[in-house]
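Q: I'm teaching a short session on how sequence maps to structure, and I want students to see two examples side by side rather than one. Could you give me a first protein with its sequence written out and its structure tokens following it? Keep the formatting plain so it prints cleanly on a handout.
A: Of course. Example one:
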Amino acid sequence: MDDDRAVDALLRARDEGATVFNTADIYGLGHSQRLLGRMLAQVSRASVRITSTVGAFKGTSDNAYRSLVLHGQVEQSLENLGVESLDVLTLHYTDFGPRDQYLQEARETLEALRDLGRVRALGMRAPKRLRAGAGTSGNRHQVATARFAFLVQQLRPEVITVPFSPLSQPPPEHGAGREEDEDIFSFARRHGVATMITRPLGLGLLTGKHRPGASFGPGDVRSSLTAPVLEAVQRGLQPLRDRFGSTPNDLARVALLYCLRRCPDSIVLTGFTSAQQVTANYQGLQSELSEADHEFVDAAYAALRAELEEAGQPRSKETASVPCTPGAGRPAQEAEER
């Protein structure tokens, strides 16, 4: 994507009403941040919130959360962005070394960064599935839940990020979920924590533009998708095409409205490749779906999830059990959803 076009698209997102922009130090090894910095130089800093992620790049250190590495990555991110502070700093991983030997060091560094005003709020990524009442002797989901609850207690994040899309396991009726299967959104509400959902378009699959035979670049996570899976996606999206329109913009609109309805108190981060795509995303949100439309959409996505399972592809390894509750909301923008 051409740099000037990327900055124009970011400015268009801001003009359309986006207030949250998400980046990371590993996106192009700082290039994404520098592009966002070009946009930020042209708007009021107070009008937007910037979130960035650290923890995936450790340099020559043995751990990304050593104090010098963590502090250095934050300062480099701020320099790339051309800002004095990050509104949210999200931890990419939760590996603090053997027996969490760097956890205390990381916590103290994060507290110092907040005290200095360099970071306003801390974010964490949610596990794939929550399993309440977890103990270290339970299954892997129980272990992950216990680990997550421990780190929430230790680090006290104000934001939790989690992938969610129409390919995700749908939620139970509000209040009908079992206590032992509390979802991440009710967990966040119980702890007074905000949520940001990522990949609402299912890595672009829900736009319908990736057909059987599609070629993905090196390192693209979709390169493992088989032809039967891509065929199943195309079949599953056909009822939505017939009712709402056949273009990628039409299908993106339906997917975003689905996520916003089910995650009313979440920030929805969605990607773009052009200013025109940004405009289309926002224009698509200006007309709501009827209750009958919502029921049709729910049924269509349920059938798609079932067909993907039959094709040997789980709903999504990252989003398999991340339910949330019905409602309405607004989206934000991030780098291109791959």
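Q: Perfect. Now a second example for contrast.
A: Example two:
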Amino acid sequence: MNFKPANKRIILLDIVRGLAILGILLINMLFFTTSLQAIQFQLELWPDWWDQTVQSFLDFFVSGKFIAIFSFLFGYGMILMKDSASKSGRQFTPIYTRRLLALLLFGLIHGWFIWYGDILFHYALLGFLLLLFHKRTAKTLLVWACILLLLIPGLMLFSGTDGSYEPNPEWMDQVHQLAAADEATYSSGSWAEIQELRMRDWNSSVVNQIIFYPQILGMFLLGAYFAKKKWFSNITENHSQLLHICLWTGGMGFLFQIVPLLLSLTGTGTTALTDRLEVIQHLLGSPLIGVFYILFIALLIQRKTWMQILNPLAAVGRMAFTNYIMQSVICTFIFYSYGLGWFGQAGPAATTLLALLIFVLQIICSTLWLRYFRMGPLEWVWRGITYLSIPPLKAKKSVKD
């Protein structure tokens, strides 16, 4: 690999971002190939043991963890941009505002015309709230992060709400019919029919995502807190502190994962208690495990062997914006009627294998691209809008040893 990052702090962020791109793709495959109605009402579509096994693995180790990582890195990145602006004598707020407005536009184009499950639109909106915190101290960022991450789980516990529901059979029959209609549209409908359904699903997705806004903003602030503390600037020096946080977040995060699973398997808990713990598992367990993954990788890459193994992820991470959008372009082409029309025909086992294949191709393409260019094409456009200038794209020629 010809590109060489400036320091281990940057390579860590790129590696983690690249891994997050993989994790997000693994989870998004369900949404690329399954009706939103079927997902929302948890219809059992793939009962075979291999699909159930793969889905259980994804639920335990992947679901919610990597979008938490992505959110963490978004907040971390804001502080890095602020520090960079300060060093260069630029005003940070106008720069970051343009960055968010451009992201908002990209998110709308992505959600309206490519794939309804876009997250960029939500990140841009919440980014304006994040901007209010850029001058706050590390302690203030941590306090607000904890408040926001605990807000919804706390409200659920005190209100007695577990988020479960028992739809009547007649309604479920209608859901099956709606899911079948969605599958027919995405797999064999015209562009106009797909576009109409895509907009309808985008509206539903936006409404569904709002409930997670406190969690996303909380992870933004947690990432900003870590950036303020500068723990990743010198991982060796901060090894003890990072190891302590790594063990704590991993222990607590997986405890939240395991308890509801054990109660369900042993039948020792009530349905209401198990359902409530499962929701809290996603809202608290997933963010904690996300932080654990980041810290675990930070400690792991201090070893040369692991740095060499994980280094290919950095190329994907440096082009995370481009790769995220390209995943949607590739997968909608595979599953929608204007491409191969495979919508509804692949279960979790098949889509996971496909996701891994796509990601391997992204590693190869990203590595080749970065041999000749400084950044991904969408990153280049985004940076140009952010700084109101045309940034250099071609990579500097390096002298090979």
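Q: What should students look for in example two?
A: Point them to this: The first helix runs from residue 8 to 33. Also worth mentioning: The chain is about 75% helix and 0% strand.
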